[in-house]
Amino acid sequence: MRTFLFAFLFTIFTVSGQTYEIGAFVGGTNNIGDVGRTNFILPSGEAFGAFFKWNLSKRYAFRTHLLNGSFTANDEKSSMPSRQQRGYKIKNTVFEGSLGIEFNFVEYNLHKLGPAFTPYLYTGVTYFRYDFNYFDAQQVQDINQKDGSFAIPMIVGAKYRLSQVLILGFEIGARYTLTDNLDASNPEGSNFEQFRFGNILSDDWYVFSGFTISYTFGRKPCQDCFAE
């Protein structure tokens, strides 16, 4: 284990370059839970944010981002008759911070002249904040309180270099959360047991989907790191 860790750190510090990206994200947000629709990708609110990438090589990059989004879960728009009859509706906001690794499917050389395109995957560790709510007599009870939890991000996207310094991308990212109360269906605490409903054994998901635009800067790190 120590040998593997040493080799990993050695690789990072020997191939890492001074090539960075700073950019913005604009898109939409939707949830997957016990209230509203169950569509995997169907934004019901807007989302925006910013990100920073440190390209270690043509295949890997460290990435950190901050994203903020809102969604509306509405039973009346669900395809499930039981939810349509119940008629719950709730709006929530999500603010997340994430740190992880982005992997390019093909070699992505930012120092080579001409266009560059690659699909990519991203995963890491995400922490997010959301509004703590619960339903009472079919009405949302907002107690003006925030709660927080961790999530596992699973993001797939594609990016295309428009010029030597501008990159346009599109991505869809599902987050498996460690909470079941994004839709106010499972508030934690002994005082809220009577307000729980739905599948309390299945945690919620939320999805960000949208476009990215980034600006690249930094010198070429060495002769071989981004060699053609």
Number of strands: 8
Global geometry: elongated
The secondary-structure element order is HEEEHEEEEE
Tell me the span between the first and last alpha carbons: 33 Å
Rg calc: 21 Å
Number of helices: 2
Can you summarize the main beta sheet? 8 strands, antiparallel, barrel
Q: Portion of residues in helices?
A: under 10%
Report the structural category: mainly beta
How much of the polypeptide forms β-strand, as a percent range?
over 45%
Identify low-pLDDT runs: 3-18, 221-228
State the strand order across the main sheet: 1-2-3-4-5-6-7-8
What does this structure look like?
The chain is mostly beta strands and 228 residues long. The chain has 2 helices and 8 strands, in the order αβββαβββββ. It has helices at 2-15, 81-86, and strands spanning 20-32, 45-55, 60-74, 89-104, 117-136, 139-161, 166-177, 205-217. The protein has an 8-stranded antiparallel barrel. The longest helix is centred in the first third of the chain and has 14 residues, at 2-15. The relative contact order is 0.22. Residues 3-18 and 221-228 have low confidence and may be disordered.
